[in-house]
Structures are given as C-alpha cells and as structure tokens.
Design goal:
Blueprint (H helix, E strand, L loop, with lengths): L29 E6 L2 E7 L13 E3 L3 H19 L8 E10 L3 E3 L3 E11 L4 E10 L10 E11 L4 H5 L3 H4 L6
Antiparallel strand pairs: 1-2, 2-6, 3-5, 4-8, 6-7, 7-8
Length: 177
C-alpha cells in the first residue's frame, strides 16, 4: 500500500493511491487540499475525460454527482492512509438538495469539488455537503462560479465482501455492532 508522501503536495501525488477506482473510471485528477472532515479535488475536462461527449465538447452535468462521490472516496482514502489502513470501497446511497447550475462541464475548463463531512456513524453511514466550482480561466479576474451542490449520503462497510454477501453483522463486527 503506497503511503502518503508528506513531503509532496497532494496535487503531486497519484489520485489512484487514495481511491478504490481504477482507470478508466477515475474521474477526478488530483487532490488539492485536505483538512479534517474536508477535502478538495480538481478535474480539468479533456477529450479523454470519462463521459466526454464529442458532439457537445463537454461532460454532461449529471456526472457531477460522481465527481462529488469520488472526492468523498478520496477523503476516506486520505484518512485511511493516515491510520495506516487499507482503502475501502464505499457506496453512494443517494443525494438531497442536488442542484445543477450548469448544463455541462466544458472542454478545457477546470472544476474544483469540495466535500465537507456533516455527519458520520460508526456503522459507516455518512452525509457530506458538496460543491463544485468552475475556476476562472488563467489570467482572468473573475471569481470561481458555483456549478453544482448536493448533500450526498454514502456508506462504507468495514468488510465490503461480507456486506455484499448479505452478512452485514460480519461487515461491521470490528465496530462493535
């Protein structure tokens, strides 16, 4: 298991070291910052971005929920590495208050996703407040623009296979349940 390289900024570390996803399903490019209960990731839209639509030269706006989910996964991954634990699979259960303020994520533009943990149970159930911002183009004096928000509900069992096999008690035994 690769360790966090504390002498390197997160942006210079491989995002795949912090999330359970593998190419071609890694949608976020890098971690920008981390502090307790909060993480910021970034993605720049290219023709090789997953879900890129050649006709519209963009990624559809509904992919934003996955940018949020992968940012939550990256936060869990950073926290796991800080505990010297393994990266675990989590599940997106749903969202509330989803608001998509842009029709698409545009080619050549950079977006930042911020996730803030609002609540977490020992069972692995958690709720996050998430925002996605369009960053201004280089050299511009514009402010970042809010393009999506949601409260995202997730679940990360201690033992994913036991959970998938229907043995939820085994999956959370280490939590004292």
């Amino acid at each position: 298991m690769p360790f966090i390289q504390f002498n390197l900024p997160f942006a210079e570390q491989n995002i795949a070291d912090f999330i359970p996803h593998r190419a071609p399903m890694i949608l976020v490019d890098k971690i920008i910052s981390y502090q307790r209960d909060t993480l910021v990731t970034e993605v720049t839209i290219t023709p090789k971005s997953p879900y890129f639509d050649d006709k519209h030269q963009a990624v559809p706006n509904y992919v934003g929920i996955e940018y949020m989910a992968q940012s939550i996964a990256a936060l869990a991954g950073v926290e796991a590495k800080l505990r010297n634990d393994k990266i675990r699979v989590g599940f997106l259960l749903g969202s509330r208050k989803l608001a998509l303020h842009a029709k698409q994520y545009e080619l050549g533009r950079t977006y930042r996703t911020q996730v803030n943990r609002l609540y977490q149970e020992e069972s692995g159930l958690a709720v996050f407040d998430c925002q996605i911002y369009l960053l201004p183009e280089a050299g511009s004096d514009q402010e970042k623009i809010l393009v999506a928000t949601a409260n995202v509900n997730v679940f990360q069992p201690q033992d994913t296979q036991a959970y998938l096999d229907g043995n939820q008690d085994a999956g959370n035994r280490s939590l004292g349940h």
